[in-house]
Design a protein that fits this description.
CATH architecture of the largest domain: 3-Layer(aba) Sandwich
CATH topology of the largest domain: Rossmann fold
Oligomer: single chain
Strand order of the largest sheet: 8-11-14-7-15
Helix content: 25-40%
Length: about 350
């Protein structure tokens, strides 16, 4: 299905480049990435080799290192010769096009970078099951719920919960004039769609009790009366724990009682490294970022082995690092802003084992 999805346009022949086709890339003189068919690139690459000017290609390819403005302005051309000719930009494995049939109608979700468990989630929601996604922070749980609703052609609603979230977030309320103020949850509940409750394991016990009764039967009690749950209503809950209470990283999380757990199908949603790399490369595919990423993966392992709390090296942190590194920030400054965030004790312990690499 992905074979016919267009990735982009070949700079040389102006023909379509499809997702399943191998391709080459280079930056032009304005720093804009250009893509070529494999054959077209070989022709184009010959045209841009500035061999008479280069004294030290590897040094000149680094911006600001040569001291020569002309050489610096030719950085992208040098990159084309010494990097792009040997580095093929493969299609990330996680870019997919999903096609499903629903009520005789074909639904397509095209060209998305998807989590390895996305198709399982989609099947469960197509069966109108309520699903609890559990896993480490920043793994794309709520994003997946939104994409699944899009693929199914259903409405989508969202709320993020905390211990102070009141039940009116779900059921709405009657105002001072006696008029019912419906919630987004109520709208999805009676009209159909996918509703995502983020940080479900961070909600108050009273809100969880209310939610339990809404999911228990085919109807629910609201301030304006009892309403039938729509046949196409499904709920996605997300959390960082199994609903068994606190752990090392989340000391304040709630315990789900057995009845509440019965309302959901549990689906683990941990970090998907293929997806993480694909998104990272779309933000910053430089050698510096690849080096930084390898270091961050080592930090993840070492953090767990040392039992260090309050430091999370999530995909979200990887993407922020890619953005900041691409905008001139040093990795030393980024790690303080994005990873350690003032936790000097954790920083000292981790850097003793995983020193910051030169990028």
């Amino acid at each position: 299905m992905a074979d016919n999805v267009k990735f982009g346009t070949c700079k040389k022949c102006q023909g379509d480049i499809l997702l399943n086709q191998k391709r080459k890339y280079r930056k032009n003189q304005n720093g804009v990435m250009e893509y070529f068919h494999l054959d077209c690139f070989s022709i184009r690459a010959v045209e841009v080799i500035p061999a008479p000017i280069i004294k030290d290609p590897e040094e000149a390819a680094l911006p600001g290192r040569s001291g020569n403005m002309l050489l610096d302005s030719l950085e992208s051309l040098i990159e084309a010769k010494f990097q792009s000719l040997v580095d093929e930009l493969e299609v990330p494995a996680q870019i997919k096009t999903i096609e499903i049939k629903l009520n005789g109608e074909v639904k397509r979700l095209e060209g998305k970078i998807l989590h390895k468990s996305f198709e399982t989630l989609l099947k469960l929601l197509a069966m109108r099951e309520n699903v609890y996604l559990y896993g480490a922070p920043g793994s794309g749980k709520s994003t997946a719920a939104c994409l699944a609703a899009e693929a199914l052609g259903r409405s989508y609603g969202y709320s993020s919960l905390n211990p102070q979230s009141v039940e009116s977030r779900l059921i709405g309320y009657m105002d001072a004039t006696g008029n019912y103020r419906a919630s987004e949850f109520h709208r999805i509940y009676v009209a159909g769609g996918v509703y995502c409750l983020d940080e479900l394991d961070n909600a108050s016990p009273s809100l969880l009790t209310t939610l339990n009764s809404l999911l228990e039967n085919g109807h629910g009690s609201f301030p304006n009366g009892t309403h039938t749950r729509h046949g196409d209503f499904s709920m996605v809950g997300t959390g960082n724990t199994l609903g068994d209470g606190a752990d090392m990283d989340f000391p304040d999380r709630r315990v789900f009682d057995s009845a509440f757990k019965e309302r959901f199908i549990y689906l683990e949603w941990d970090y998907d490294l293929d997806m993480e790399r694909a998104i990272m490369a779309s933000i910053n595919n430089s050698k510096a970022m690849k080096t930084a990423y390898e270091w961050m993966l080592k930090l993840r392992v070492e953090r767990v082995s040392q039992g260090i709390r309050r430091v999370v090296i999530s995909p979200r942190a990887v993407f922020k690092t890619a953005t900041l590194l691409g905008n001139g920030f040093t990795l030393e400054s980024i790690m303080d802003m994005v990873i350690f965030k003032g936790n000097m004790e954790a920083k000292e312990k981790l850097l003793r084992v995983c020193p910051v690499p030169a990028v």
